[in-house]
Design brief:
alpha+beta; Butyryl-Coa Dehydrogenase, subunit A, domain 1; Butyryl-CoA Dehydrogenase, subunit A, domain 2; Butyryl-CoA Dehydrogenase, subunit A, domain 3; four-stranded mixed β-sheet; four-stranded antiparallel β-sheet; about 55% helix; globular
Length: about 400
């Protein structure tokens, strides 16, 4: 078995980020993802990192994905590029590799490895988000075809995609819905690309919507189990995204700290910096290493294949999120305290970090409530046991 060369990957991705991403200073202000940059990511092998060698990939794992994500955000200095790359990589690995049939893997994985194919996950809907009780897109099985009707929104990489993974209701009994996922090619009759809902951060990661009006696809385009796609596809995607997100945040914070220091550089010499200012910068400088360690720990757990990692992954993601929230408050206070003039690049970096905290915030709040109630229940049980033992 070939041992994956992480050191070589780090050097390779660093060079790509430095020469192909960082030098394009307008990326974070663009609505569209440059086609030549997406092509370059495919030609350089970045799209192939986490796809097995037998399917045209490079045989990397989640650790390799976390490393690449962090470097793209840090050295590349563009969180939107990092997010679009990660979305592509995870859709290929989690969905087509993880849930696809042998034929689907053979048909799509080699093209996903080169960037010839781009897969976009289509779960959220206008006004409903991704909440399963509010989704309404439906799929009807008719002979050897499936007919899809509904509308999807917030589709990351949608404008780049030629394949959409559509989550649709395939059954409903007493209000309980069963969801199934389908591979829907962009050129399918009845599929219309819509503008979707505007996303005002993480540029140039592009978004769109799709409208499905009696859209017919072959029944063989079903991806994964019939009726259990929310558990098999949607929830694992959120879990992995949350687990690896601290890698993007760590890289983005390192990049933002450099921008912050550059904003200060013209106004004072290092030795003349007030002690409180230097201490504040020093505290901020240590945080990305901690977030990076969280991401690497999460990646190791994902790579372990163990079945008992969900609670730990959830806790790691929560810790990273709370840490990020604290850092953003500290950065805002630091800028205000020292009356720093914020250049455009620093403003964009701040915006993207802050607004990223709002992604799926309600779902994470529910997870926090669950953890809190479990702690209270354990404390109550302990209290009752002590009361019984010592009446």
């Amino acid at each position: 078995m070939t041992v994956f060369d992480y050191a070589a990957l780090r050097a390779e991705v660093t060079e790509f980020a430095r020469t192909k991403v960082a030098l394009r200073h307008d990326l974070s202000q663009r609505d569209d993802f440059p086609a030549d940059l997406w092509t370059a990511m495919g030609q350089s092998g970045l799209m192939a990192i986490a796809i097995p060698e037998e399917h045209g990939g490079r045989g990397g794992d989640y650790r390799a994905l976390a490393m690449t994500l962090e470097i793209l955000a840090d050295v590349g200095g563009c969180q939107g590029v990092a997010i679009s790359w990660m979305s592509h990589a995870l859709n290929a690995r989690l969905h087509i590799l993880g849930q696809g049939t042998a034929a689907q893997k053979a048909d799509y994985l080699p093209g996903l490895a080169t960037g010839e194919h781009t897969v976009c996950m289509a779960i959220s809907e206008p006004g409903a988000g991704a909440h399963p009780k509010r989704l309404s897109t439906r799929a009807q099985m008719v002979g050897d075809e499936v007919i899809l009707n509904g509308e999807k929104a917030f589709l990351t990489n949608g404008p780049l995609a030629d394949l959409f993974l559509v989550l649709a209701i395939t059954d409903e009994v007493e209000g309980r819905r069963a969801f199934t996922s389908f591979i829907v090619p962009r050129d399918s009759a009845g599929l219309e690309i819509t503008a979707g809902v505007a996303v005002d951060f993480l540029h140039p990661s592009p978004h769109c919507g799709i409208r499905l009006n009696n859209c017919r696809i072959p029944a063989d385009n079903r991806l994964g189990p019939l009726g259990d796609a929310f558990n098999a596809i949607s929830l694992p995607m959120r879990r992995v995204e949350d687990a690896l997100a601290p890698a993007k945040t760590a890289g983005a914070m390192r990049h933002r700290l450099r921008l912050l220091c550059r904003a200060l550089a013209p106004t004072l010499e290092p030795d003349a910096a007030p002690a409180a200012m230097a201490a504040g910068l020093g505290r901020l400088a240590g945080i990305p290493d901690g977030l990076s360690a969280m991401a690497w720990r999460a990646a190791d757990l994902l790579d372990s294949g163990r079945d008992d990692i969900d609670e730990t992954l959830s806790s790691l993601a929560a810790a990273a999120r709370e840490t990020t929230g604290w850092v953003e408050a500290e950065v805002e206070a630091f800028i205000n305290t020292w009356d720093i003039e914020v250049p455009t690049a620093l403003s964009i970096a701040n915006r993207d970090l802050v607004k990223s905290l709002g992604i799926a915030a309600s779902a994470r709040d529910l997870q926090a409530q669950k953890r809190g109630r479990a702690l209270l229940a354990a404390a109550q049980t302990e209290f009752q046991c002590r009361s019984t033992a010592n009446p």
